[in-house]
C-alpha cells in the first residue's frame, strides 16, 4: 500500500499551525477510510477528519492529482524534519 507523500510548503505549514491539518499527495485510487487507516498506522496518530481534493491535470500533464487534508486530534502532530520521504513535491 504505497500511499502518500507529505506536501510541505509555506501554505501547508500555516494550515498545520492554525488548524492542525496536514496535506498529503495520495494515490488517486485511495478513499478517505483508506487514507485514515494508513496515516494512523504509519505515523501513530489519531485522525479526526479527512478531506479530499482532486485537482485537474495541468496543461502538459495527463494525470489527475489527489490531495488529502488530514486533521489530527488535539495535541498530536508529525515531525517531518527527520523524514527522507519528501523532496520538493510539486
Automatic annotation (TrEMBL):
One of its GO terms (biological process) is translation. The keyword Nucleus does not apply. One of its GO terms (molecular function) is structural constituent of ribosome. One of its GO terms (cellular component) is ribonucleoprotein complex. SUPFAM superfamilies: Ribosomal proteins S24e, L23 and L15e. Keywords: Ribonucleoprotein, Ribosomal protein. It holds the Pfam family Ribosomal_L23. It comes from the Bacteria. Belongs to the universal ribosomal protein uL23 family. This is 50S ribosomal protein L23. It comes from Candidatus Walczuchella monophlebidarum. The gene is rplW.
